[in-house]
Amino acid sequence: MAERHARLLLFLSILTPQCSAARAFTPLRFSVEPTDTLAVRGLPAVLNCSVAGGEAAVARVEWRKDGTFLNLAADERRRLLPGGSLFIGAVVHSKHNRPDEGVYQCTATLDSLGSISSRTARLTVAGVPRFSGQPEAVSVHAGGSEVLNCEVSAELGPFAHWERAGVAVEMDGRLVQLPNGALVISEASSADAGPYRCVIEGLGPLKASEDVQLHVLPGAGLEERLEVLLGPVSLAKPVGETVLLPCVVKGSPVPTIGWMRNAKAVDQSDERISVIGGGVLRIANLTSEDSGTYSCRADNSNESVETQAKLTVLVPPQFLKKPSNIYAHEAMDIIFECNVTGFPAPTVKWVKNGDAVIPSDYFKIVNQHDLQVLGLVKSDEGFYQCMAENEAGNIQAGAQLIILEQDVALPTSAVPSLTSATTDHVASGPGERPGPAPTAPRDLVASLVSTRFIKLTWRLPAELHGENLTYSVFHSLHGSSRERVENTTAPGEMQVTIQNLMPDTKYTFRVVASNRNGLGESSPPLTVATQPEVQVPGPAPNLQAASITSTSVTLTWERPLTGNGEIHTYKLYYSEKGQDTEQDLDVAGLSYTMTGLKKFTEYSFRMVAYNKHGPGVSTEDLLIQTLSDVPSAAPQNVSLEVQNSKSIMIRWQPPPPGTLNGELTAYKIRYRKSGRRGEAAEVMTTQLSQLIDGLDSGAEYSFRLSASTTNGTGPATEWLTAETFESDLDESQVPGMPSSLHVRPLVNSIVVSWTPPENQYIVVRGYSIAYGIGSPHAQTIKVDYKQRYYSIDNLDPSSHYVITLKAFNNMGEGIPVYESAITRSQSDPIDPEIDLFELFHHPPHTPAPDPSPMLPPVGVQASVVSHDAIKVSWADNSLPKNQKITDSRYYTIRWKTNIPANTKYKVANATTLTHTVANLKANTLYEFSVMVTKGRRTSTWSMTAHGTTFETLPTSAPKDVTVVSKEGRPRTININWQPPSEANGKITGYIIYYSTDVNAEVHDWVVEPVMGNRLTHQIQELTLDTTYYFKIQARNSKGMGPLSDTVQFRTPKAEPLDKMSSDQGFQGKAGGRSTLPDHGFGSSLDKPGITGSHENHILVIVIIVSVGVFTIVAVVVGAVLCTRRSNSQQKKKRAACKSTNGSHKSKSTSKDLKPPDLWIHHERVEMKPIDKSPEPNLVMTETPIPRNTQEPSGHEVEESVSTLAGRRGVRPKIMMPFDPQPPQPVISAHPIHSLDHLHHHHHHHYHPPPRGYLHHQISLRAPATPSTPVPYVDRAPSSESVRTQPPAPQPPSAAELQQSEAVIKEEDPPSYKPPSAHVHPSHPMKSFAVPTVSVSAHNPPSSALPCTPLLAQPVPGVKTASIGTLGRARAPVAVTVPSAPDSAETSKMLPTKETAYETDELSEEMAHLEGLMKDLNAITTA
């Protein structure tokens, strides 16, 4: 062995001076490589690249974008700088067009040597400055923390900053701006309050958000639960960068923030780590040890909250060993070494001359990342690069392989990279030959042939021409040109064993001898086949298969006849028919049932038995097909074409391959008129299109399609809609002129393309193309109406042709459009497939004509990926069969929602045959189409494909949530809402949450589920006088959406009796508090002195009789007063009555006058004194008006009622005016207990009632003393006659007066009905309501009868209030209880003497009334 090494060293030393014949390696490398760049729209951008080395000056630099070479010569915006950098003049970036954004790579090429590629760099463009949402105003307690969000995209974050009151906010340890633009304010003080706005600057014009206010509240306040405003989120950052983990928590008392990593407190003594902004963890210069789970804990004296996130520190790839340059000879084996590290573990790929190396039998990846090349050939020469990439970045390192001629010695530097099979061949040939080489070895034979190896022997060459011959054995698979070499182990040895061969396989061998002069002649080739395996089992006999179901097959076999020992296992190999990949599995026994197969698919099975020697002989392939089933997918690319007002054409393509699951028997089409779910018609067909006729004009129809096999019908498509025309397309006139015509001349043909006429409402049956030399009338061709281009062939070169194009229908041909073109000469052939830019770029060439259109992509499919993404794929018939793109063509994908009204498309470009469209709406049907562009040639749009995105959770809450009380049932409410605007699927239900505690946890609220088709719900048995909070959540098949905003509602205080509800129609404001009092008039709760019973019916009868007597007396008094008038006064009265009667002539005559029946109901209306200072203004409104804050509370009213009950023996005096023309109202009197919520205050104004409504007033006077007169004054501003009652002997006190109001409801029947006051019975003898009737305010009367004047003028202590309406708005009827004015005020309030009654007459009549009232009081007190 030592002798052998000595000879080898001696041989190398002799060859060393002669190694100059070996070509030197070329030092080609990158001194500068591109890096990730953030560009600004409209501004220039540069991607740096520089080539270094001795050959750098002649290296050709090119750029790739997204894997495709850029044609910089034809690009006006992008150009190559002298050093090799890429310059983009003005970056283009819009919502639908982003040509500059992508992944770039620099490539340097040396002709005849090879290419190297740089690492990749991503160019990101900061797009149009826009805010996805506006910040919101917030409030924070002094010393607390708050967050102002600036919702911008990630690329706009570096350009965003905050301003307060127009001045930039300076960031410090208290104010921190996060990478996403959010502003964190901690330890808030009053100086922080003010308007804030987020500003995007540096991307053109300044873009600012709306101003929002930050309110700083006093620090001392109620305790507030902790709330995490902004917590950390899991993220990954590269080594060396700075990360901010936010943790902003608000609450009172202000919490303290602590951080932990992997359950251990963060070491803040490290200068790289700090907590800023009240709780934001800042880690600078990240290292891999900083990875872990970070927890933020906020704690105050009351509670604590915790949130956590994971931080992953990424380590970019780094080379531990780079590949080295290698010299080698043909047929040798070499290894390029490459060892990299990083986190995550980098992926390694090898590139040769800029193209990826695909692993094969001769190119193998060994030792995880090393590249082994077996059996080198001359074409393997070039530059090899190891490229490693992970999420943190990518790197590259390269080496050069030089294949030397066999007579050139390999330099010693190349030895370490050679495999053991070729190491001995390093110095097999001299650089210069001093003498001849050996002749061919003789008698090459295979002395030993086995299943896995072959031993070869030979004899010496006929002419040695030297001593110490070495031999090289070249071998290859029979028929292959790529050889491998095996060298003998020692000089003079004439045998070699070739290992690792395949059994029963033919190999070709040849041997070459070499001496110090180099390689000699080759022996004749020898072909030898290895032996088949003989110690292994034979084939398993009687292999049979039977289909059990559509997805399973049962196989049976028998034991091999020649087992050659015990059978250890069987291996079952199977594959789909037509597939090259074969799968296998180990089975035991003599049968096996294979499951999980594809339906109605033919499979190939074979069986191999294994014994201790290995695999045996395989059986013959057995073919069997699984059973058929119903289709598992619906037909695709369904399109609807409205033909006319009566028919629609539906077209489709079969279900995707592999989903039909059987022999197609028919397609089933179901259609119906939209809105009629149960009336669907059905059509069966075996074609790929069907005309549906007999439809209604101008109607919308829905269609769905399914495929059927013998097993049944598969899933159907989504319902697609189309609307027939209101009327058919017009064919009463010829079509218009085509809107455009383009021609492209070639040598023997002209390609014509056009667009249809602009008027789409005229029928086009086809197009007529006429052409000729000098005249268009030589030849005429007609094409279908759908065609948009045509190639006119067999033309003469260098000839001037005139071409016309006309659209035609059954009425004739339309106006032609003309174009001319000169075909090219024979010496100037132009291939339609080549790019014409170079031919027409420089003068004196004329510009290239419009190119012919390309074939549109076919087989467009839309595969739904998720709820917001669909993958679109297609095929290109203009590509080779392997569909490999080798030119600069690109594809444009457009899509829109499949809504007839939506004509707005979105587009994207792609350089591959697939593209994933993202950011789509969930549960939405989209249609896609594709066109291809190559240079200046484009195709038409392909057929459309449809895809419906998956459903996802609702992303918005139900809206317009309202709560209203149910009329007449205060314990029942109706809650109404509208569906969420972003349902993201079919709403299957709603959940209503309600509670009396708005701060309670959600799981503590009462839950009521509602079906998804309901938008209202009734909730019963609520508690009176209680505030409830409601919120609603929607759900679909994917889960629950967010909760709506909380809606507040307070139930009424009291539950009205049924009759009161039905007769009076009292209504409270929806969603607010009811105006019904807890203890209003007629209530017997907690009132001392009132002990009546509902069962005391005798008192009711007595009171009714008393009222009748009282009415008769009042009429008699009125008659007596009228008859005692003086003659002059009666004349005036008669004249006034005539005037009044004339104005009411349409209603009745004076002889029909009847006094109204007056009912006294001892029910919910009762007199209550009000202890209140006089108020001069009379408030009148048509809506319930609460009292102002100066009026007494409910408790005070109850006490005053109790006082009134104790004075029941006091006699009141009641004035009852009568209208000369009786109306037909139903007086509904209702008291107001509390009017706390005053919505409308009318001060110093009187609103007259509307025309057509009668204004009634009830005048109630408390007991008067004999010494003080009480005046009654009519409304001053009106023209009504004013009559005044002479002073009464007893003045009432203000505390004993009651204020109320009544509403008049006019009945529809014209017949006269006496007015009556309707109230619900609550207790007899507790209320006293007397209605009085006056004429309308716009028709001032002068009564001919003696009547008491109306009281409409505001009087101190008089109040009016509207209770409500019954069915519609009515004019309010005032129920006035005047306070007794001082005697000094009486004189100025008295009317003129002409209209006053005499004092003695009135006093006498009132004395009679007082007597009657005494009797009435005696009855009630008894």
Q: Can you put this structure into words, describing what you see?
A:
With 1422 residues, the chain is mainly beta. 8% of the residues lie in helices and 36% in strands. The strands form 23 sheets. Strands 2, 5, 6, 9, 10 and 11 form a 6-stranded mixed beta sheet that branches. α4 (1097-1123) packs antiparallel against α8 (1399-1421).
Instruction: Assign an overall shape.
Output: extended
Relative helix content:
under 10%
- Summed up, the helix count is 8
The span between the termini is: 147 Å
What's the oligomerization state? single chain
* Strand-pairing-aware structural class: mainly beta
Sheet bearing the most strands, described? 6 strands, mixed
Write down the Rg.
Answer: 51 Å
Number of strands: 92
Unreliable runs, pLDDT <50, ≥5 residues? 1-20, 423-433, 831-849, 1059-1095, 1132-1397
Sheet-strand content, in percent, reads: 35-45%
Name the average pLDDT. Answer: 74
Furnish the topology, listing elements before pairings.
Blueprint: H1 2-15, E1 29-32, E2 37-40, E3 45-47, E4 50-52, E5 60-65, E6 68-69, E7 78-80, E8 86-88, E9 102-110, E10 114-117, E11 121-126, E12 138-141, E13 146-148, E14 160-164, E15 167-168, E16 175-177, E17 183-185, E18 194-200, E19 207-208, E20 212-217, E21 224-230, E22 235-238, E23 243-245, E24 248-252, E25 256-261, E26 264-265, E27 273-276, E28 280-283, E29 292-299, E30 304-321, E31 326-329, E32 334-336, E33 339-343, E34 347-352, E35 355-356, E36 363-366, E37 370-373, E38 382-390, E39 393-404, E40 442-449, E41 454-459, E42 470-477, E43 484-487, E44 495-498, E45 506-515, E46 518-522, E47 526-529, E48 544-547, E49 553-556, E50 569-576, E51 583-587, E52 591-594, E53 602-611, E54 614-615, E55 622-625, E56 636-642, E57 648-653, E58 664-673, E59 681-685, E60 689-692, E61 700-709, E62 712-716, E63 720-723, E64 738-745, E65 750-757, E66 766-773, E67 779-784, E68 789-792, E69 800-809, E70 812-813, E71 817-822, H2 837-840, E72 858-864, E73 870-875, E74 890-897, E75 906-910, E76 914-917, E77 925-934, E78 937-938, ...
Parallel strand pairs: 2-11, 12-20, 22-30, 31-39, 90-92
Antiparallel strand pairs: 1-4, 3-8, 5-6, 5-9, 7-8, 9-10, 9-11, 13-17, 14-15, 14-18, 16-17, 18-19, 18-20, 21-24, 23-28, 25-26, 25-29, 27-28, 29-30, 30-33, 32-37, 34-35, 34-38, 36-37, 38-39, 40-41, 41-44, 42-43, 42-45, 45-46, 45-47, 48-49, 49-52, 50-51, 50-53, 53-54, 53-55, 56-57, 57-60, 58-59, ...
